[in-house]
Amino acid sequence: MIDPTALATTHDSEHDPRNDTIKIYVNGELFPRDEAKVSVFDSGFMLGDGVWEGLRLYGGKLAFVDDHMDRLFEAAKAIDLDIGMTKPELVAALYETLAANGMTEGVHIRLMITRGKKKTPFQDPRFSIYGPTIVIIPEFKVASEATINRGIRLFTVHVHRGAPDVQDPKLNSHSKLNCIVAMIQAIKAGADEGLMLDPHGFVSTCNSVNFFIVRKGEVWTSTGDYCMPGITRAKVIQVCREAGIPVFEKNFSLVETYGADEAFVTGTFGAQTPVVEIDGRMIGDGKPGPMFWRIRELYKAMVARDVART
Questions:
Q1: Does some domain include residue 198?
Q2: What per-residue confidence (pLDDT) applies to 1?
Q3: Would the CA dihedral through 76, 25, 110, 303 be positive or negative?
Q4: Residue 211 lies in a domain
Q5: What are the pLDDT digits (tens) for 1-38?
Q6: Do 183 and 166 reside in the same domain of the chain?
């Protein structure tokens, strides 16, 4: 058994009792947390047939919401899933759910859309005859400062990121078993998250977050060919360019990774989380470095600008 309290994660947060009574959106209705349910015939439950987004609320506004909607609708189109709502309608549903929960700050939202309830258990999408299932779970959830100050440890796993003709890693799909297996291997090895290579052996991404290293004042991340197109990843690249920080999307190896001055991961919930150890090798001096802190402040300023304009 895996002890969930033994290691750090990029989703570490303090317990908030308000989450015990949240209202969850399911297909246009709001339900108390313990009463929110989907059918056992749901395509997402049966087959992982669906797409999702994670969003953050700052000052009553959803950060980078247009980027998230664009990614969600592109993924839905790719798997031929009719969401049944327009982007503005879906955004309105998000804000209605937040308002019903009295939420204005320090919130993480999980938006999930599946192909919906099937008439019988089978993978054929034509058997999903009842329309999509749309679920919005908002939680009072703020990234743990202790984890950010301490950093996380990675372990390079045997599960590689696949090529687009197998299961395109650019799809933010419900089918995450490959990433879960990667994380299990990392946890069993005593790390916090799995570092995944691409089919050619270059460093690609982590199992749930995107990965960056810093070498001699330069910020490197993978080419993006085999990783999720993270919104936060893209924003970090953007703030680096705007601030004149050299940033490169390129192939690089584990040798270059072990020798990095700093490393960090990015994701919607934690924004940026430092990496202090990979495969038992200390990264830099084993604590969050100056480039990490600089990028984190630049990103916070970008979020503030984004929510101010929406």
A1: yes
A2: 44
A3: positive
A4: yes
A5: 445 455 688 888 989 999 999 999 999 999 999 999 99
A6: yes
State the DSSP string of 224-258. STTS---HHHHHHHHHHHHHT--EEE----HHHHH
For 208, the 3-state DSSP assignment is coil
Nearest to 78 by CA among 190, 198, 168: 168
Task: For 142-179, write each residue's pLDDT tens digit.
Answer: 999 999 999 999 999 999 998 999 889 899 999 999 99
Q: What is the pLDDT of residue 5?
A: 52
What one-character DSSP code corresponds to residue 100? H
CA atoms within 13 A on the CB side of 22: 21
pLDDT tens digits, one per residue of 190-233: 999 999 999 999 999 999 999 999 999 999 999 999 999 999 99
Tokens 């399911």 correspond to: 26
| 100-106 average pLDDT score | 97
Query: Does pTM top 0.90 for this prediction?
Result: yes
Indicate the SS3 state at residue 38. Answer: coil
Q: Which of 236, 265, 270 is closest to 108 using CA atoms?
A: 270
Contacts of 248 (CB under 8 A, 6+ apart): 218, 219, 220, 221
pLDDT surpasses 80 at 113: yes
Task: Judge whether 212 and 235 are in contact, CB under 8 Å.
Answer: no
Same domain? 300 vs 209: yes
Rounded to whole angstroms, the Cα distance separating 143 from 12 reads 6
With left for phi above 0 and alpha for psi between -120 and 50, is residue 232 left, alpha or beta? alpha
Residue 284 one-letter amino acid: G
Outline where DSSP puts E strands in 115-249: 133-140, 152-156, 193-197, 203-206, 210-215, 218-221, 247-249
Integer distance in angstroms from the first to the last C-alpha of the chain?
A: 45
| 251 neighbors 204 (Cβ within 8 angstroms) | no
Domain that includes residue 159, residue range: 145-309
Angle between helices 65-78 and 87-100 (to 10 degrees): 120
In a domain, 156, yes or no: yes
